[in-house]
Structures
1.
Amino acid sequence: MSVRVYVPRDTTALSLGADTIASRLEREATARGQPITLVRNGSRGLSWLEPLVEVDTPIGRFAYGPVAPGDVTALLDSGLLEGSVSHPLAQGPTEEIDYLARQQRLTFARIGITDPLSIEDYRAHNGFCGLEAALQREPQDIVEEVKASGLRGRGGAAFPTGIKWQTVLDTPADQKYIVCNADEGDSGTFADRLVMECDPYMLIEGMAIAGLAVGATQGYIYLRSEYPLAKEILDEAIRRAEQAGYLGDDLRDSGRAFHLEVRLGAGAYICGEETSLLESLEGKRGLVRFKPPLPAIEGLFGRPTVVNNVLSLAAVPFILAEGAEAYASHGMGRSRGTLALQLAGNVRRGGLVELAFGTTLRTLMEAFGGGTASGRTLRAVQVGGPLCAYLPESQWDMPLDYETFAEVGAGVGHGGVVMFDDSVDMAEQARFSMEFCKVESCGKCTPCRIGSTRGVEVIDRIRANDNREANLALLSDLCETMVDGSLCAMGGMTPFPVQSALKHFSEDFQRTANGDRS
Amino acid sequence: MNHSQEWAPQAIQAEVDALKHKPGALLPILHALQDRIGFIPEAAVPIIADALHQTRAEVHGVISFYHHFRTTPPGRHVVQICRAEACQSVGARQLEAHAKARLGVDYHQTTADREITLEAVYCLGNCACGPSIRVDDSVRGRVTPEAFDELIDELQTRPLEVMG
């Protein structure tokens, strides 16, 4: 019997040569008279070890990584097909890799283990148990289960998911919608992508459960156009789920319907804001809407709509299959369950780290991340995306929890953790925050549209030492105006990274743009 | 990306007709046209407007709102460089400067030989393995200036292989 060898096909593995590795492995193993069964699995989320090749052995899967195409011959020579651990890239049994073993994988329990498109694999790993359970229950019952889990919106706003569902359930309409916000535009975040590329049926299942819970028969996944591979995988997964009766007019012979379609965004960051996203889905410019009315009452095409992030919907199958308590037993305070943290930027061991709420940034960046990739001193970390604060070392020991972070004006956001070493110029980073807002503002409200442009100009003057003190005061004032006067989080939160840079890294604003760091 | 220059009104009309029944059909139509033609030709605007019962101004407004849609033909390959924070922290600014110098173009421009269009992108979701770039539909990670040069050489020599 031929040995099963796994080579991931998620974007990260592919970006580092996984396809070449896969074809070389097949060719060279065949040439040695040991043909292999190649499985293109998802990623385990251990980005620092990608491409992570795994081999099935009688005592479980053994890992090798990070493999470069040029390593294939030597790996085969060293006995890769027998699970030998003599090669320097050998990591031993995959499940025992410390980085993975120390995580609490509830949502990401399957990623990297299965072939993402195999429904058989999905079912063999508890897939569709949540949907089967939901089909036996009343809509209100399903909503109660999600409420009891304590699940809060993982896109960043942290609004209780069950409450949102209740509003949609309670609003009568001829048509309701489930919209998945898959416009994962925050730098440092890739957990949504991992769900869609590595475990797409989990998202499909979560959306179907949401449909049953609120009485919606149509779902849309609004996916950013920067993720072409996720589009390809989701389209195929939806096709197969329809064939297997997990989507369509009659879910598993229940007589209940749920249809799903992927819609591509078009490179507008603002469309990650839920009302702008709905405008875009309707075929319009992605201009932010005034609230109220809430999308839960008047959403897509004016109908009641659940808009949830990928990770919120992906958490739902577990909650329905294992019960709310199994989820809520993790976490701290009002932050229940697990958080998918993504270690990114200048980090030695970057990747996905799913942990219960309550861990500290320092644990994450040191015990998991292993410090900076450059080997230099870690100086600043931006948690939660481009609209969240830069945190200095004095704030790395707070527990990761929505309330604790909010108290110091920081955000957990979508769980992205971007690390910077001491070569970073925080005035340059502050300028970038304003520049990004200038590029991506939808233009509807003045503080965001004009404020961001003025913000770039003022920071340029500060860095050029042009009337510096007066311009620093002006920048503070501008930030306040944007926070208080903007229509949505784009203009309202862009000042957070700027203000945090001013507060914690003020020395960087006292040098000229090209000045040397002493 | 190897788009033909066929954008006869009939071809545009066929793409529009295939999708106009969808709720919120405008973005799917624009994607279909750009995937087929490489850009949204001006001639498409009145055809789309007519099919969706919208004004030309509304259609134009949508095309110009989204960074992804282009109204002029791109080069044979589109290279996007990630400018976002995670990539900045591992040298994206240097890579960006190197790329512009190597290609002799700025963002949104195409090399004189029509081979490569350079674009900025804000995050490709490959944030633990930056700096990242996207070449047409494939993402590359940990791109050093040297790796970028090799890639560009590869892209620019491909037509000879095809002709051989």
Note: Chain A has four domains: 3-95, 119-328, 331-421, 426-509.
2.
Amino acid sequence: MAYKIISSQCTACSACEPECPNNAIREKDGTFIIKPEKCSECIGYFDEPQCVAVCPVDDTCVIDNSYPRYVAA
Amino acid sequence: MDIQASVASVESSQGKPLDQVLQQIAEHKGCGTSSEGGKASCGSSTAPEDMDPAIWEKVKNHPCYSEEAHHHFARMHVAVAPACNIQCNYCNRKYDCANESRPGVVSEKLTPEQASRKVLAVASTIPQMTVLGIAGPGDPLANPEKTFKTFELVAQTAPDIKLCVSTNGLALPEHVERLSQFNIDHVTITINMVDPEVGQHIYPWIFWKNKRWKGIDAARILHEHQMRGLEMLTERGILCKVNSVMIPGINDKHLVEVNKAVKSRGAFLHNIMPLISAPEHGTVFGLNGQRGPTAQELKALQDSCEGEMNMMRHCRQCRADAVGLLGEDRSSEFSTEKVMEMDIQYDAEGRKAYQEKVEEERQATVLAKQAEMAGLEAEFSDLKVLIAVATKGHGRVNEHFGHAQEFQIYELSTQGSKFVGHRRVDLYCQGGYGEEDTLPTVIRAINDCVAVFVAKIGGCPKDSLKAAGIDPVDKYAHEFIEQSAVKYFKEYLAKVKSGEVVHEVRGDADIRQGAYIAA
């Protein structure tokens, strides 16, 4: 799995973008999106996913169940 | 909490009765009080004797650091810093309304390049605009690259504009060095507590060192960074203003402690602001019914801190993209679209000449007041009254009652006149017709005043004001505010002495929440 951003919730504050250790986040059409193939759920980097920890709106950066769970190499 | 409780808190915190505290304030001759008997004092005079000239140079045309300057000089904010590193219970980043004037609210975000163009456009149109601040809508130091890039661009093209930032302080210690390299003279830190026990009720979390910290740990880290940042700034001679949000029942009594803590660390000015919380803002405090303070509660707290240090009472809690004099907002004239179309000629010499004129005008208002003070000093009276003034700026009574979006409040005594606050009101008049239903709102906002000074007023509101015990005064139209105020007070004292007027203590007044700024 990877994380995804619920675009209707996103305030486009950009706080998540520089925190992502994988450069998986970018702005698109006025909100931010996570590239799932780049997202490692911050496993191996930090104790908690950085986008979730810094996002000012609860339940905006959430697990994307449609994507297979990330497995650390 | 009611007024009595607020007054009681003042008593307990000082360990002496309120009268004594007020007396002490009246006797205080230092910064923050108005000029007494023609004696110059900090932030409110033309030639301050008790202020370091170097500091005076820094504040004399900064509207947010000098009450006097705010009548004459304008500021602007650019919204280049949307990200934040903490969550406050009085802030909700999901809520943005173009017509709202509140910190954290903006109409559009800008890139540093757009922002620097906007600064030039505004500086060319409003020559008395002297200050560029970055105040979010997030935290400028949580967006350091965008913030410093903007400063770099502006410093290159408009070196006469003062740069400042307003921060929550969490990332301050790591950026102090860079701030001082950019020649930033003014930094504002929002400090709502010096005790994490109190802080945990204001800040649900912070993001620091790649981790979300909650509760008391979050408040402790934030507090430590705020204090360290403040100390580092004052060590480098950077002027610090401390903003505190007064939240009744949570930190209202505690702010006296905050005041002492920031003063001892060298803060220059303390700005205690009322909490803005309405359910429709969707903030934690708005939704759980946390109220803001009344006008009297706010003034009592500001008065009790004033003996300690300079207090700012002219803050308009403006938007993160505000443009113009404090209390006016011309941001809609400078949207990115409009700015891109503008033909910008940056005329540094012209700006300087204009600002020198403004400076002359500013000095004239002070001298006029000082001349009027003659005769008042000899009076013995402990009478104090508040008046409301409708003004468009320049220190004059120059606004129509029905057009006023705010009233400035002055306290009058034998010490002279002193600016003690302002009240926002909804537009009472639209298109030349008075709207009956908004008049009670205006009256509630200035209910603690004995008079309202206006340039002009219609017959109908005049009668309603009189019925409410507020004297509508239009005879000082276009005169200097403070000179007129002293003149009025002399007459008032004479009338009380002769028995023509019976002085009565006025009631409390409302602090208006989330007033609309668009006409």
Note: The radius of gyration of chain A is 11 Å.
3.
Amino acid sequence: MERLDFRQSAPLTMGVELELQLVSSRDCDLTRAASDLLSQVAKRAHAGEIKPEITESMIEVSTGIHARHDTLVQELRAIRGVLLEVAEKLNVGVCGGGAHPFQHWSDRRIMDAPRMKHVSQLYGYLAKQFTVFGQHVHIGCPDGDAALYLLHAVSRYIPHLIALSAASPYYQGVDTAFESSRLNAVFAFPLSGRAPFVQTWDDFNGYFGKLSGAGIVDSMKDFYWDIRPKPEFGTIEIRVCDTPLTVERAAALAAYAQALARWLLIERPQRISEDLYLAYTYNRFQACRFGLGGEFVDPVSGTRRGISEEVLETLAALAVHARALGSEAALGEIEAIVRQGNDARWMRERFADSGSLPDLVWRQVERLRAGC
Amino acid sequence: MSDLFFLPDLTSAAAQLPWYALLVLAAALAGEAAQRWLRLPRLLGWIAVGGALGPHALGLLDPEALDALQPVLDLALGVVLFELGQRVDLSWLRRNPWLLGTSVLESTLAFAAMFAVLLALEASPLLAAVAAAIGISTAPAVVLSVTRDLRAQGQVTERALLLTALNCAYAYVAVSVLLAWLAREYAADWRVIVLHPLYLIFGSLALAAAFAGAALGLLRLLGRRRDAQFLCVFALVVLAVWAAATLNLPVALALLGFGAAIRMLDRRRLFVSLDFGRIGAILLILLFAILAARLEWELVPAGIVAGGVLVAARFAGKALGVLALAPLAGLPLRKASLLAFALTPMSGVALVLVHDTARLYPQFGPALAAILVAAIAMLELLGPLFAHFALVRAGEAADEGR
């Protein structure tokens, strides 16, 4: 049995992956454009990475490793610049958002690559319904044990990140009533949800060994958890965020996660136990359904209050860490989201304004281009 | 026998037989057969049935029946061009000016190549120019129908549609101008030479803008009801076809412009999903079948060699134009060559023009007509195949002929 080695990485560094939508400038529906776009991008020198994803109407961009928020924003903007330049030339729209508001999943075409074909065969319609767009945030950890501590400690704050990033109120042409409908598509996968409560990297290897021995998983890629360790990077990967409508917001969310990680790893404000997960699915549902207006049940005290209150209080606790990390501006943006509303709210307002979902998509395209 | 008064009177019934319905039925069946068993584009089946039933083969459809269907043909053409206009995004030309360059270059080279071949075949320069101008245009109905059949999306598809819309516009303006000169036997003075094309272009655009404005106004009144929107636009397309014909404007350019203007003026994207659905499909079948029925297949053998040279010259011109600017326009060479194939279909409407010209101008001569008819016949069959396989090979088809 192969052992997973946790590679050491500089603690509290961060990296971001964003899955972006490719839409037709004609009808604003998702369109097959990834290969055409990537073949043109490949000809240009550019920052970060721009890669294919499971369908032809999706691409993934990822940044390098950053210790600071300002360099992260810079790199994300540079990637956006290259991408939009090529997209303009090909007449393709690129936008954020956790799900396409009105695409029909049966129209999607799976990318022509062995792993993609395998996933499609295994999961059938789920693979196509999984045409949703998320942001993944990597946080560097000194070792596997610290990674698992951080993974469990951060799980309490998952509803914050869901509510702050939520940008998928519309799905398959209807208002889902959810602020993040995207996560519902993720929950359908057999290995989704939360990681098991193991606290050391040795125990994690034991768990992984049992599952792979039973033929349930081949690699870490088969886990669709909300947070999963990424041993080859030496990080934990937070996967609950919808892709925001701007890269600036994506960077701010990453900085929030980074500050949380610093606070949790340095001050260790909570003892971790299985009990942390008591209210996990309830809180997560509240965040998906109601966004910042949702309720949050504290797993330790059992008290309940609003998610926005929770976020504001956490921001106060993070202030000193934000100073140390140089991310005060980013946390200021997070506070602005709490006060002014998340992307899901923006999308609902735009739709109320025009009554046209294609028009909404095009405004998302323009929003990504303009930045915040 | 007079007792059996209730039996039908078959002789008089035959005279009133609705030929167009039989034509649609037979063509639809053949189309399905082409797709299911031969894995070929449906429209080849439609063309085959039209050609077989037409006056130049089995003769079940006589010239009178075809003439009676002329209004349907005009309408079908109007609908196709309107839909094509709606699909193209002219602002793309601003963002990628090399596409406009590609369009001008491929049209010019194709024209020049065909013109040279025809001159070598000893056609008179003006007639050669008319014929070469006809050949500039890619068949909008073929490209649209193949794209839709395959549910194709991607750069080859989008560019084929855009270049088709543009080369149709050039072709129709050029043909109208040249025919007018031909009518006046070079006698036109310079004012006509300058003003006529201006009238054709700006007249069509003004008509297009007026209809688009009216359509959007009506659509806003009607709100979001799909059916009402569809009926309203359909009626306006019919009216626009009539108005363009009445004003001596090229119907094709006016309708292309109408579609494109609707798209440009619809800033809130309320009507992006407007299409003619099943009615559009029936019109397409009739369009292909009627045009194929009119083709004088018996002329093909006489013109086949020269026609083949003409077809090759046209393809070479288009391919050279597309390939030369592909790197600048942001298209890999492999896809650019597929794009060149996607542009091969020649409009069946060319046939109508050839017909009219040949009838009006005896100097057109049977030899030239035979060459053009042979070229059109070849492209009628090869064009859809090339376009089909180009889109499939480019990996842009959702349904690969299934």
Note: Chain A touches chain B through 26 residues (CB under 8 Å).
